[in-house]
Amino acid sequence: MKATSLEQLCQHLTTGTATELSTLLPTKIQGEIGHFNVFSLANLVPSSSEKPPVPYDCRAYYRISLLQGRSQVEYANQVLDLEQNTLLFSTPKVPFQWLPIGPKLQGQFCVFTPDFLTPSKSGVTLEEWPIFTKSAYPAVQLSETQAARAQVIFQQMQEEMASDYVYKYDLLRTYLLELIHFGQKLQPATALHPTHNAAARVTSLFVELLERQFPLETPQQQLRLRTAKDYADQLAVHVNHLNKVLKETTGLTTTDLIGGRLVQEAKILLRQTDWTISQIADSLGFADVAHFSNFFKRQTSLAPGAFRA
């Protein structure tokens, strides 16, 4: 198998470089449903903390990472400071950015598309797994014994990726499911059995509407729902009721949640695309660049141009 960095793969998928996709994907995967690959962080993390961090926000993939060392993750509206031995689950439906801190970070991660675990192949529906829901806490702290067990699973994946076994991808699905079950069993019981009251349902529907508008793929694409009233009308509830429910369930107002998601998308577009700031502002529903710049600066303390630089 040809060694491939996730950065190369993501660059091809998101910017359409001239590199042939077949040279970036694992060998013999063309006959498979979906894509899967596994990487060692030692081959991807910069050797010096002064160098730019490696982005892992390619939005075509689900990711499971075993991190051993200090790092920071921006996940949706959260910033997570991770220490030793963390199993990190991320989904393409939630904005994600991973930043190594210091030179001693070690570990592995695997990436896969939803099609790799289709019910016909694995017997499960990926979106139904609690650990991959938008409300799940993505980081699972591991003891030394638990980290060693996760390490074994990743080693088995890496060995199988390099093998010529005819049914290697069936075996890799088994390892992947084992890793998901391993992490999910370590989640708090409340995360695996969420409540289903009326407030939770309204919150879930709101989040689904919000996330359904992303990602923005072209400068011509524009948000259909932009204000708290837009969402309330779509959900057939009064805007005051929606705001009250969201405040009770999340601690944030409707406007706060919309604004937080907008700034996350703005960060991704500024980092990953060559769109002009005017195009980004227009796609995100701002009347002009000045309004967008003021909004972004209030949220991040940086102007869009300074953040991109």
Question: Can you describe what's shown?
Answer:
It is built from 13 helices and eight strands. It is α+β, with helices and mostly antiparallel strands and 309 residues long. A five-stranded antiparallel beta sheet has the order 1-7-2-5-8, covered by helices on one side. A hairpin with a 2-residue loop joins β3 and β4. The longest helix has 19 residues.
Characteristic terms for this protein:
13 helices, disordered N terminus, alpha+beta, 14% strand, three-stranded antiparallel β-sheet, 309 residues, five-stranded antiparallel β-sheet
Short description:
With 309 residues, the protein is of the alpha+beta class. It is built from 13 helices and eight strands. The N terminus is likely disordered.
Write the layout of secondary structure elements.
Elements: H1 6-15, H2 21-24, E1 36-40, E2 62-68, E3 71-75, E4 78-82, E5 86-90, E6 96-100, E7 106-112, H3 119-122, E8 139-141, H4 144-161, H5 168-185, H6 189-192, H7 198-212, H8 228-235, H9 239-250, H10 254-272, H11 277-283, H12 289-300, H13 304-308
Antiparallel strand pairs: 1-7, 2-5, 2-7, 3-4, 3-6, 5-8
Any idea what the shape is?
globular
Straight-line distance between termini:
36 Å
Count of helical regions: 13
**Count of β-strands:** 8
Order of helical and strand elements: HHEEEEEEEHEHHHHHHHHHH
Major sheet characteristics: 5 strands, antiparallel
How would you write the strand order of the largest sheet? 1-7-2-5-8
- By secondary-structure content and strand pairing, the structural class works out as alpha+beta
Overall helicity: 40-55%
Unreliable segments of 5+ consecutive residues:
1-24, 47-57, 189-196
What average pLDDT do the residues reach?
78
- Proportion in β-strands: 5-15%
State Rg. Answer: 20 Å
